[in-house]
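Feature request disguised as a bug: please show the residue count (312) next to Transporter in the output. Example input:
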Amino acid sequence: METLNQIFILFLLIVVGYISKKLGVISNDMNRDVSSFVTSVALPALIISSLSSYSFTTEALVKSGALVLISCAVYALSICIAAFVPSVLKIEGSARDIFQFITVFSNVGFMGYPVVNAIYGEQGVFYAALYNLPFNAVLWTYGVMVLSRPLMEKKAAVLDSRGSIDLKLLINPGLISVLTGFCLFVTSTRLPGPVFSAFQMIGSTSTPLSMVFIGSILADTKIQEIFANGKIFIASSLRLLVIPLIVMGVLRALGFQGMMVGIPVLITAMPVAANCAIMSTRYGNDYHLASQSVFVSTILSMATIPAIAMLL
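Example output, currently without the count:
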């Protein structure tokens, strides 16, 4: 029941963001600023404060290593499933690219950390941060490859001047905060009291700001256009239910329990990554379809996340 209460609180925060945008309290400029603040300041502060809260133990290190390996395996599984999505849904062109992307990448930042924090607390964020380490590597390799197909077909410059992955794209505040926090954990280094408290206070804003941001984004989506595309609902069901249940079944069959199952399943059960639309625009793909996918999966997740959480 406590899990349902926490999820319902997140839902109410999304509603607040939705209504605020409809009433003009929130502007698109504010959305951009909030998005930048959450991803560059609030979430990194939450990650660092969570990772630095725990002293180094062999058990925690082993669990961390196992979670990174599980994460890699889950991404490999998702990529394999994504390879069959176009033929199953009978889609091609830009729609193929978007549906493959949304099959693999979930909203680990704006929803993943807040949901894990609501259910498992700081310890959950600690392990979720480590579990998400492979995310950026997969996003900026496989993700870019998939979304940049239209530009590649036009032989346009997609990545860097040499036509290869720009490694600087892999460096971001989220990755830096995870590596910083992990170093603090391994060395059992404690931040000075006032600094730690400041990081905790800033980090605590990530959940309400993230949910309000998602609600405000949903307020800009045209509902009538979305419901005309039933394939989005099929792909969203795959993202929200099918893959998480497969991951849950496999991990339990292998003997994993507790957060070792809960963290991978919850992260996998999140809706489509919010940056899907942003990256689709950047690489010349169908950002309208990407935005619709984010909207539908986020709305459906209000029902599927509690359902998945109750099975853990």
